[in-house]
Design goal:
Layout lengths: L1 E4 L2 H10 L31 E13 L17 E14 L8 E18 L2 E9 L2 E13 L18 E12 L16 E13 L3
Parallel strand pairs: 1-8
Antiparallel strand pairs: 2-3, 3-4, 4-5, 4-6, 6-7, 7-8
Length: 206
């Protein structure tokens, strides 16, 4: 089992301390933070408590690309597809901390009809369990208006945080999902992934 820390300073240190450097992958899937680029990703619920959600979807990929965005010659005729469904939970802790709010999240999912192909190599699995994703701790704080223009009074049923909100977090992907080293198609990564991250949300009216 491998460990991954998504932090530029540690990667830079590794490059300086090693005479050679190689890249490798286990499961090969994107490793979060899952919502790191979503609109409103810096916001937490305005009321403390437990929140739950369910989600489902499908993923379809028709080629593996290199850093130039073009199909990689190392992975010709690449294809991956799967369907999935899962549940997620968020708990916003009571009180305020350094002027902001704290929360933790966790989500897990099940996938089915998993198909992967590279070149002439193909594999299909009927069902697999995905890895567990968690924001171990999120701290969200409203920083101020910073020139934002609020919408007209009464245009929304609840107050919105017009201006800048920031939310640093420590996220992790835990390798509790399916992984078979003798199979080609795996949705599990077989690696711990640690992802310190920060979100910025700026809201302004028209």
């Amino acid at each position: 089992m491998k460990y991954v820390v998504s932090r530029a300073s540690l990667v830079g240190g590794a490059l300086l301390s090693c005479s050679s450097f190689s890249q490798a992958t286990e499961g090969g899937q994107f490793a979060g933070p899952v919502g790191g680029s979503d609109i409103r990703s810096a916001y937490l619920p305005p009321v403390e408590g437990l929140y739950m959600a369910a989600f489902s979807g499908m993923s379809r990929g028709h080629k593996f690309t290199g850093s130039d965005g073009k199909s990689s010659p190392a992975t010709p005729n690449g294809r991956i597809s799967l369907n999935y469904a899962g549940v997620g939970m968020l708990y916003r802790y009571p009180g305020t901390y350094w002027g902001g709010n704290l929360a933790s999240t966790v989500s897990a999912y099940q996938a089915w009809n998993i198909y992967q192909r590279v070149g002439d190599t193909t594999d299909h699995q009927s069902s697999q369990t995905g890895d567990v994703y968690s924001d171990l701790l999120i701290w969200s704080r409203y920083m101020g208006n910073y020139g934002a223009k609020p919408s007209a009074s009464g245009s929304t049923p609840y107050p919105l945080p017009y201006g800048l909100t920031v939310a640093p977090a420590l996220s992790v992907v835990a390798p509790f999902g399916s992984y078979d080293e003798d199979r080609f198609a795996n949705i599990g990564r077989n690696a711990w992934v640690y992802a310190p991250n920060i979100s910025f949300s700026y809201l302004t009216g028209p």
